[in-house]
Amino acid sequence: MTLLALNPSRFLSEFYISFWIPTAVLTAALVIKLPTIIRLWRDPLLRAVGGLLLLACAVFVFCSPTTIARVNRLTGVPNISAPWCYSLITAFCGSCLLLIITWRNGPSDRSATTRRATRRVVSGYCGVIVALWVLFGLADAPVERLRDLDTYYANTPFMREEILLYLVAHAVACLITSRLIWNWVRTEGLDAWLRWGLKLLGVGYLLNLIFDASKLTAVAARWCGHDLDWLSTDLAPPVAALSAILIAVGFILPHAGQYLHDRWRVRLAHRELRPLYQLMRTENGEGVPFVLRATPELRLTRRETFIRDVLLPLARRLDPGLGSRAYDAALGLGHPPERARALAAAVSILDAVETGARTPEPAWGSPQSPEASDEGDGPDTTSLLQEIGAISRALRRPDEIEAVRARATAPAGSVAVHE
Predict the structure, then answer these.
(1) Residues 273-293: what's their mean pLDDT?
(2) What was the pLDDT predicted at 1?
(3) Burial label, 343 (beta-carbon count in 10 A; 0-12, 13-18, 19+)
(4) Residue 178 · residue 148 · CB < 8 Å
(5) Angle formed by the axes of helices 337-358 and 274-284, nearest 10°
(6) What DSSP element (H or E) covers 350?
(7) 71 with 62: CB under 8 angstroms?
(8) For 149-173, how does the pLDDT look when each residue is reduced to its tens digit (9 = 90+)?
(9) What rounded mean pLDDT belongs to the chain?
(10) Residues ≥6 apart with Cβ < 8 Å to 317
């Protein structure tokens, strides 16, 4: 605290965040979103997200001191970057406000209230951008300032009004956007990834308000004859960079989080089917051929298809009586009904596989062949084919299966004595 009170500028310089870091994060967010934006280009919400991320990248690219100096040199006008950067910041603020309005109400919302709010935001912030350029044209700002333009020209006519205008416009947009986001976070029924993304966005916009407060305080101090320039030159830039990082992650998280979650569920389902898949391979004699470029979803589908294709003819050898006894045995051992059904099915399938290994299939068309029996005499395989995941998980516990099997195949008298 003593160091901060004596030399806050030196203290804050230790926490400097390069403008290229938020630029990289924002670019990554745009790259992640880009395939979806291109594929669903007609979706106005996705286009708005893409435009907002592109504007955010532009803000940090053009507001870095090196780019400011280069633009001033290329145009030959000292400080021409000021209205250009202010315009980008203002356009970004308006885009944020429009995006939150559209995102929360839905792109299909055409109510009069939504249309009126959209028109007000567009006309208001377009008017601010025009005013910024008009004020710069009227101002006299011959000395190039790369880092402290806001405080250096805080008392210069027209530049003073320009600086105040962009800061107020930025603060108003961030305040309204932040309020809309936090109200949205408190609503019921939000997806967990969306809720966390909104929370990061909310914190990012709160940091933007700290940026505005720092800038406005430094400018107001100049008006009163004091020097608090460190608030503008040393505190505001890292706060803005951190805010941009949180906003970028807030936009990425709902999409990337749900994508990774779905991928994890697919891989987990594929792994859970492995015991039943291996059992079906012993019955069938072969498995699913490996394809290097197959997606996880395709591999899961092929494994499920293979299991069901083998289970279907195998079901002809299932013993309904054994299945019923195994279910009762599993319930008797304290398993809940869903788990008991999976264990009973696993016991029946193992028995059918072992029976097939001992007894060859009847010849085609013989009196004992399945084709010669009535269609209605076959077992109902609907639930069996639908519960392959639960059955495969049951196969991972051979001790439980053996306990159920021993109880189901034991003579009735011995079970009663044991109980």
Answers:
(1) 78
(2) 44
(3) buried
(4) no
(5) 20
(6) helix 337-358
(7) yes
(8) 999 999 999 999 999 999 999 999 8
(9) 82
(10) 352, 355, 356
φ/ψ of residue 396, rounded to 5: -75, -10
- Identify the band that residue 368 occupies on the pLDDT scale cut at 50, 70 and 90: very low
CATH class of segment(s) 2-264:
mainly alpha
Q: How far from 137 is each of 74, 143, 228, 243, 361, CA to CA, in Å?
A: 18, 15, 28, 31, 93
Using an 8 Å Cβ cutoff, are 326 and 343 in contact?
yes
Q: 23-30 long-range contacts, Cβ below 8 Å, gap at least 24?
A: 23/57, 23/60, 23/61, 25/244, 25/245, 25/248, 25/249, 26/53, 26/56, 26/57, 26/60, 26/244, 26/248, 27/57, 28/248, 28/252, 29/53, 29/248, 29/249, 29/251, 29/252, 30/54, 30/57
What's residue 369's pLDDT? 44
Sequence ranges of the chain with CATH classification 1.20.1070: 2-264
Exposure string for 15-37, b = 16+ CB within 10 A, e = fewer? eeeebeebbebbbebbebbeeeb
Q: What would the two tokens of residue 353 be?
A: 């596989």
Orientation angle between helical segments 44-62 and 81-105, nearest 10 degrees: 150
DSSP helix/strand/coil, 290: coil
- Tokens 């919302």 sit at which residue? 109
Determine the Cα angle at 93 with ends 109 and 67, to 5°: 140
CB 19 within 8 A of CB 60: yes
Q: Which pLDDT score is estimated for 357? A: 62
Residue 242 has which token pair? 């951190």
Instruction: Enter the tokens of residue 224.
Output: 């009163």
| Average of per-residue pLDDT across 369-395 | 67
Residue 198: how many CB atoms within 10 A of its CB? 24
How many residues comprise the chain?
419
Q: Which of 208, 233, 88 is nearest to 154 (CA)?
A: 233
Stronger pLDDT, 36 or 360, i.e. the higher one: 36
pTM of the model as a whole: 0.69
